[in-house]
Amino acid sequence: MSEIKFYNTFSKQVEAFEPIEPGKVKLYSCGPTVYSHPHIGNFRSFLMADLLKRFLEFKGFAVSHIMNITDVGHLLDDADEGADKLEEAARREKKDPLQIAQTYIDSFMTAGKLLNMKPADSYPRATEHIQEMIDMVQTLIDKGHAYVVGHNVYYDVTTFKGYGKLSGNTLDDLNAGARIEVNSEKRNPQDFALWKHDPKHIQQWDSPWGRGFPGWHIECSAMSTKYLGEQFDFHTGGEDNIFPHHECEIAQSEGASDKKWVKYWMHGRFLMVDGEKMSKSKGNLYTIQELVEKGFKKNAIRYALLSSHYRQNYNFTFDGLKGAEQAIDKIAQCVFTVKEKAKASSDTAVRSEVTAFIDKALAGFEEALCDDLNVSKALAAVFELVKEANKLSEISAGEAGAIIAAIEKIDSVLGVLDLEAGGDEIPAEIMELAEKRKQAKLSKDWAAADAIRDQVTAAGYVIEDMPKHEYRIKKAD
RNA sequence: GGCGGCGUGGCCAAGUGGACUAAGGCACUGGUUUGCAAAACCAUGAUUCGUGGGUUCGAAUCCCACCGCCGCCUCCA
Questions:
Q1: Residue range A319-333, pLDDT digits in tens
Q2: Cα separation of A405 and A402, whole Å?
Q3: Could you identify the residue whose CA is nearest to the C1' atom of nucleotide B38?
């Protein structure tokens, strides 16, 4: 049994995985900021966390998973000026910020369901944890990590010796970069806000420092501590979160607790579309719902976003999505065929060569994922299994059961097959046509059979013939 | 300017010093099968891993240079 290894952004190395508490894993994922519909890029990062979680569960760990919802806007820039995005959206759509947030939370949840993401144990919302944030800010002030200027509170980065360790930035480098407009209130240009006062802000709360709103890093520190404790195993996010967001979170959490906070940091690389960076101006910012409306299968979207390594830029294309549909169908087809072939059998015996290729595939699958979630390699093992299974001309009931159990086990991690749903939903009239065609074929009326097939094709379905006049109907791509 | 990543067959992608005479998927072509298709199976495709040097008995894998692409350096998954 190979050991589980993950690349840790903090150490910049692949490390052997050892949970803090045996058998248990605590996982925190940076979730959506709900001022717009989440897009495929956001979901690539969320799906990385989903894959990690499903794999750890596959390996028998009890996983506690928390994903925050950022429903309070961030400042646009560190000069602490400008509108925040949630409030901008609220003004644009002439709605209350919380209404805006709810709209996009719903959108996020819908898309997550379409992508067959396992729900987190809890989705804490920033606006419901203001008190926890205030408490943590107070602790940081008491410990000398933070200071108050008027109605604002800042974190003094020079008081935290590890600042910059995650991102590789040093205070000097950041100084040299100096894109930062110097805010004269701060002791150091790199200091970041923990609590801000701004009368223009719509969302405001009372605090010991006056009415205001929390800085945009404190929510993750406060909420993760509340739900997972002062130390936990994994923190995931997109690569852009590394700096400043996660760097600042470490300074806050470790500054407040004086304990090593997160054991493994995992960050997904950005997704590109047609070789270009995704952006609104290029019009290549797709949402999951849009792709489903375009007729792409939700499982194919999941497969596509998941099928390349999370530390690799993934290039999203419609051709790639088509390919993903084909690839999933190959596995689904195999399951169907195996069941069909074993239908008449009541033999529970399993030949040793069948056991052998099943075991080999499962071992290969598991070993690949143990290696820092090498999905591409894991998928190769799956397709070897499919190929071997397809080669069998006779399959006993026992063998079919073993093959399908293996594929189910694999899909508990991949989550792309809809095994319990049994494939596409087929309308009754299409089922009738298929049955008529079968009768036509039995009476060797090929012209009638072909005419019916054309009719079915025109309706957007495909009939695939099986041995003994059986058939499978599926939606056309 | 500082830091980091990538470039493998038509497309996606694994492999990071020796059984690589380079997985797997998609697409293509030929064959088997089929009433004809589809699906499935078999076969075929990189003398080669961005380009040029170098190290080594041996390099896709290490080093140097160059070219191209991507990310971070206080909005961003």
A1: 899 999 999 999 999
A2: 5
A3: A464
Q: How far apart are the C-alpha atoms of A31 and A108, rounded to whole Å? A: 10
A266 forms beta bridges with A236
Chain B: nucleotides below 7 Å from protein CB are: 1-6, 11-15, 23-27, 34-42, 69-77
Q: Which of A194, A186, A183, A180 is nearest to A149 (CA)?
A: A186
**Tens digits of per-residue pLDDT, A207-254?**
999 999 999 899 999 999 999 999 999 999 998 899 889 999 999 999
Which range has the worst mean pLDDT, A17-31, A178-192, A354-368, A415-429? A178-192
**CA distance linking residue A192 with residue A183, whole number of Å:** 10
Asked if A299 and A116 touch (Cβ cutoff 8 Å), the reply is yes
Give me the CA A313–C1' B6 separation in Å, rounded.
8
- The Cα–Cα gap between A351 and A334 comes to 19
Q: CA A271 – C1' B61 distance (Å)? A: 26
How many beta carbons lie within 10 A of that of residue A205, not counting itself?
15
Give the nucleotide at minimum CA-to-C1' distance from A48: B77
Nucleotide lying nearest to A450, CA to C1' measure: B36
Phi, psi of A79, rounded to the nearest 5 degrees: -70, 0
**pTM of the full structure:** 0.94
Using CA of residue A334, residue A337, residue A343, residue A346, what is the dihedral sign?
Answer: negative
**Do residues A341 and A394 make contact, with C-beta atoms less than 8 angstroms apart?**
yes
CA atom of A166 to C1′ atom of B44, Å:
50
The distance (Å) linking the CA of A465 with the C1' of B38 is: 7
